[in-house]
Amino acid sequence: MSEEMVNPQETTVVRGLEGVVAAETDISFVDGVHGDLYYKGYNIHEIADNTISYVEIVYLLLNGDLPTREQLDHLRRAIVTEMRVPTQVIKMMEIMPPSSHPMDVLRTAVSALSHFDPDAFDNSLEANRRKGIRLIAQIPTLVTSLYRIRNNLSILSPDPQLNMAQNILYMFHGSIPDERFYRAMDLLLLLHADHGLNASTFSARVTASTHADMHSAVTSALATLKGPLHGGANERVMKMLMKIKFIEEVEEYIHSMLAQGQRVMGFGHRVYKKEDPRARHLRTISEELCRLNENEQFFEIAHKIEDIVLKAKGIYPNVDFYSAIVQHALGIPPEFYTTLFAASRISGWVSHILDQYANNRLIRPTSKYTGEYNRKFVPIEERTIEPAVS
Ligand code: ACO
Q: What is the SS3 string spanning 313-342?
């Protein structure tokens, strides 16, 4: 062991890698101290208040600057052209058991896309950018197609005249949405696009750091996003709101959860010690949509939960809390919420994977060994079961 090497047996383990700086990136910054989020230097509030559409943010993340009108049109056309997915992959989704969770089907379908990708055997920068754009285009199609399959509806092709948010709602519901609804979808997409070294992005970077291909890295990210402590929380939020049903029941329900040491889904964050800045925009838009739908029940229940959790634990809602209500108001069923998160976060994953390839060093931490040393091998015939310690 060289002098500079750290002996893991003599160091303190950082559980959950909390506070560990594991990469340099200029893609996004989660400023937990001040409760701010930056995409390529732009504060998320500046982006949410002024952005034309999600694809503008895709361009920003991939290229570093906001696009000119011409550059935006060019990227929009490229994405719409790539939105079709191979029929073999659609057929594969059709034969999946109806009981499979949409996130599991999406993970399998993205992995399957790699077999049909025209750049499958090319890992050059140009090919990886093409694969990245293709995945940004294809994941929304996979999600909406799966919804149509699950509901015995015919699958709809994207309309080249529509933007990404309009197309997603159109391919879900079969009708061109009202502007207020597709603007909400746009906001949802752009607020989920990237978020520093979150768990799924870290997974993507670990896989990319082995020089594995883009689809493998995205498949890792999807598997990680699914968990309820990460992207899977939004589905759990809506299921909790549906269980509570009436505002009069909120107080007792939440206090009893907290008393039992349970976590309230959609609250808390590893990095933010103040409010998640994305929650502010999603709270506002969810209230607006609920009013438009003349169904404010879930918003009112959510608002009350927010008050209770803040008073009782000093914990704020994260992105998943109000995003659940926005998606509900947009007619998306809860089991699809995390797939829509993925349909947006793919732009961040692709940007980070390209960043990892460009400045690669194999990500390979070490562990502190807590086991025994030099145990004596016992032949199988002589092994006995140790009595359990009571
Ligand atoms: N409900 C109740 N208590 C909570 C919650 C919550 N949602 N989140 C944290 N706490 C409490 C913990 O019980 C702990 O309290 P204690 O010190 O009295 O034991 C304290 O806050 C600190 O919690 P940690 O577990 O140390 O915080 P950590 O950084 O590990 O967790 C996490 C972050 C996993 C997001 C957590 O807040 C959580 O489980 N939230 C619910 C799931 C969720 O909403 N996930 C989505 C996160 S955003 C995203 O990934 C897109």
A: HCCCECHHHHHHHHHHHCCCCHHHHHHHHH
Phi/psi of residue 36, each to 5°?
-120, 155
Q: Name the catalytic one among 173, 195, 215, 269.
A: 269
Q: At what angle do helices 102-116 and 125-150 cross, to 10 degrees?
A: 140
Give the Cα separation of 280 and 274 in Å (integer).
12
| Cα–Cα dist 198/221, whole Å | 10
pLDDT tens track for 362-374 = 999 999 999 999 9
Find the helix packing angle between 319-329 and 233-244, rounded to 10°. Answer: 70
Instruction: Give 180-247 as a DSSP string.
Output: HHHHHHHHHHHHTS-BTB-HHHHHHHHHHTTT--HHHHHHHHHHHHTSTTTTTHHHHHHHHHHHH-SG
Residues 100-155 pLDDT 10s:
999 999 999 999 999 999 999 999 999 999 999 999 999 999 999 999 999 999 99
Q: What is the DSSP letter of 157?
A: P
Check pocket membership of 233 for ligand 1, CB cut-off 6 A: yes
* Site to substitute for ligand 1 among 229, 258, 309, most atoms within 8 A of C-beta: 229
Please state, in angstroms and rounded to a whole number, the distance separating the CA atoms of residues 302 and 322: 8
